[in-house]
Amino acid sequence: MNPPREAGYREVVLWTNDILGAARRIYQRHGFALVSEKPHRSFGKDLTGQEWRLDLHRARDGDE
C-alpha cells in the first residue's frame, strides 16, 4: 500500500460481496476492516455488498 500512501491518500476503500470469501480473506490479511454491509440485487440474486477500509495512517508496513 505504499503507492497510495506516497500519493497522499489517507485510506483505501474496497467493495465486494459477502459470498466472495477469497476477496474477504485477502482484505483481512492486508489489514482492511469491514465497515458496512448493504443488501442489493445483482446478477439476478439477492446479495450483501461489503465495504472494507484500510486507514493508511494506522497501517504498518508489515501488515500490508
Task: Write down the Rg.
Answer: 13 Å
What's the assembly state of these chains?
A: single chain
- What's the order of the H and E elements? HEHEE
Number of helices, where a helix is a run of at least 4 consecutive DSSP H or I residues: 2
By DSSP, the count of extended strands is 3
From the helix content, strand content and strand pairing, which structural class follows? Answer: alpha+beta
- CATH C-level class is Alpha Beta
**What average pLDDT do the residues reach?**
90
Apparent shape: elongated
Write the layout of secondary structure elements.
Layout: H1 2-6, E1 11-17, H2 21-29, E2 33-42, E3 45-55
Walk me through the structure.
The protein has 64 residues and is of the alpha+beta class. The chain has one domain: 3-Layer(aba) Sandwich (Aminopeptidase). Helices cover 22% and strands 44% of the residues. It has two helices and three strands, in the order αβαββ. It has a three-stranded antiparallel beta sheet with strand order 1-3-2, covered by helices on one side. It starts with a helix and ends in a 9-residue tail after the last strand. The model has no long low-confidence stretch (mean pLDDT 90).
Give me a quick take on this structure.
This protein is an alpha+beta fold. It has helices at residues 2-6, 21-29; strands at residues 11-17, 33-42, 45-55. Helix content is 22%, strand content 44%.
Label this structure with key terms.
single chain; 64 residues; alpha+beta; Aminopeptidase; three-stranded antiparallel β-sheet; 2 helices; elongated
